[in-house]
């Protein structure tokens, strides 16, 4: 053994401590340092021992145990995945909510086609306006709830007790009727020989009295039914049905043969028994209890077509009539401003009220139109709201008839120029 001399106790104690250096400390001690310690051991002093001791290098820090630092991150990571997932699911899952939202404006002129008369293609066509009414997803329902321009309704509020499919079919039928009446009104205004022909008996609305029985019309019929016969007698048109009902007795039961609109009649045809009720306006007259859809077709000297695709409802009647007048006469009927219109129209040229006026006003304003003709038969509150919604960039003008609308257009350099 090299260290033969035994140092005093304090020195030995320090030497013992030196031998307890870590493996790392020993590795950094050089051979030169070891030789120096050996040669000077006989003259070892505490100061020299300390000066010759190897440098003590502390061990590298150990990383903290991961689970002690990251436990709080697990809920955050979970939420980070759940939030997008919830948005995707809520954005694709339909719920029992329907919207009435601002739709879009469409130029009528390019949708018109006819042969047999000279056409004056308008460079400033009239616009008709729609409102969206689709079923919503959960996310869309929430967005609609916070948007002041969107009205969100439950299925009961939107459809009542009526089948949504039946109402949609009636909407398409109403659009067909609106186009037919617009043709009649416009061509009659220009002096053409026109007339109506009655169409099929389609139920638009059923009527109940104060105490309906189980066999009342409102209990066994629904909008969208088509009446083919009464007590076995065919009723192909409304005028034939009215004749068949002239001798009917109050409280009696009749057998109606019906089928569903826009369905395979042979598959959906069936018989139902209906108890007759008094007419609200004429209590002594017996009626089935329904309001018929306007299924008349117009007999005109040349064929007219208005392409409305899948748009339903009768609210574009005024726009169709004005557009047909515009395309059949020289000059710009709308004058020098962009004009949008909404409103039903009857065979006498009267403009009728429509739904969703607020949403339609929003859509018209967004289109850049300057004048918006609306039915004067809307409520005062609806018209006031439309004017407030329109602001200063859009002028909302209520009209009662087609003639009144033509007079308004004269103020903007338009009107009929025959």
Descriptive labels:
single chain, 418 residues, alpha+beta, seven-stranded mixed β-sheet, six-stranded antiparallel β-sheet
Write the layout of secondary structure elements.
Blueprint (H helix, E strand, L loop, with lengths): L8 H11 L3 H6 L2 H9 L6 H7 L13 H5 L2 H20 L1 E14 L4 E3 L12 E6 L2 E3 H9 L4 E4 H5 L4 H26 L5 E3 L3 E6 L10 H4 L4 E6 L2 E2 L3 H7 L8 E8 L4 H4 L1 E6 L1 E3 L2 E6 L2 E3 L4 E3 L4 E3 L10 H12 L10 E3 L2 E2 L5 E2 L4 H11 L3 E5 L4 H11 L4 E5 L2 H9 L8
Parallel strand pairs: 3-17, 17-20, 20-21
Antiparallel strand pairs: 1-3, 1-4, 1-5, 2-16, 6-15, 7-8, 7-14, 8-9, 8-10, 10-11, 12-13, 18-19
Helix pairs in contact: 9-13, 14-15
Describe this structure in words.
By secondary structure, the protein is of the alpha+beta class. 37% of the residues lie in helices and 23% in strands. Strands 1, 3, 4, 5, 17, 20 and 21 form a seven-stranded mixed sheet that branches.
Query: Helix- and strand-based class?
Result: alpha+beta
Shape: globular
Low-confidence runs: 1-42
Largest sheet: 7 strands, mixed
Radius of gyration in whole Å, from Cα? Answer: 43 Å
Question: Percent helix among the residues?
Answer: 25-40%
Cα distance spanning the termini: 133 Å
The overall strand count is 21
Average pLDDT reading:
82
- Please give the count of helices: 16
Q: Proportion of β residues?
A: 15-25%
Structure in a nutshell:
The chain has 418 residues and is α+β, with helices and mostly antiparallel strands. Helices cover 37% and strands 23% of the residues.
